[in-house]
Amino acid sequence: MRLAIFASGSGTNAENLIQQTQKGLAKGDVVLVVSDKRQAPVLKKASELGVETAEVIPSSFEDKQAYETYLIERLNAAKVEFILLAGYMRLIGPVLLQAYEGRIVNIHPSLLPHFPGLDAVRQALEAKAKETGVTIHYVDAGMDTGPVIAQEKIAIELDDDHVSLTKKIQAVEHQLYPHVVNQIVAEKTRGENE
Ligand code: GAR
């Protein structure tokens, strides 16, 4: 199954997903990486791994509808069947949601519905939560809402700070995301391989 990854930033999840699928450790082929941020580090990581990239800046378009219509053109050109959000810090609008209905998933660094939105790690620390975690869910029109596919808990120790907790979360994300992608691709392609 042909996959696209959408990411806005450093792209450690994107890099990990590309590597895991290229090595055959997770099913699926990452054929396109899209970033909404100019020169986001994820773009370099993806092209070094031989994956096509698209830097698509929303402010260059008249409105969100035009931006997403262009994204769909790029996705269609690359024959993308499923979209993985990995640190894509933007709501998916109705145009893209409809085109890829039930075929977009997101990863978020908290146990949703707790701490949605920006900097979930800081939110958990400021709330003095005893645990947080990672959630992977189908995407709907809300911010970090939509049916949950998988969650994993992480204990927050008294001496944890933003750096240490981010490290723990990333380690879990890098295990959980390829695992879930592998399951989704296996389920969706089961019929085709029988
Ligand atoms: C990840 O922790 C991901 O869960 C989070 O952004 C980070 C991206 O890291 N996503 C969200 O907060 C979505 N609301 P990465 O660029 O190193 O993969």
TrEMBL record:
Q: Where is this site: Raises pKa of active site His?
A: D144
Q: What is this protein called?
A: Phosphoribosylglycinamide formyltransferase
The parts of the chain that form a coiled coil are: none
**Per its UniProt record, what SUPFAM superfamilies does this chain match?**
Formyltransferase (SSF53328)
Annotated pathway, please?
Purine metabolism; IMP biosynthesis via de novo pathway; N(2)-formyl-N(1)-(5-phospho-D-ribosyl)glycinamide from N(1)-(5-phospho-D-ribosyl)glycinamide (10-formyl THF route): step 1/1
Binding, (6R)-10-formyltetrahydrofolate: K64, M89, R90, L91, I92, N106
Q: Which species is this UniProt entry from?
A: Shouchella lehensis G1
Taxonomy-wise, where does this protein's organism fall, top ranks first? Bacteria, Bacillati, Bacillota, Bacilli, Bacillales
Report the PROSITE patterns cross-referenced here. Answer: GART (PS00373)
Q: Does the keyword ATP-binding apply?
A: no
Q: Ranges for the Formyl transferase N-terminal domain?
A: 1-181
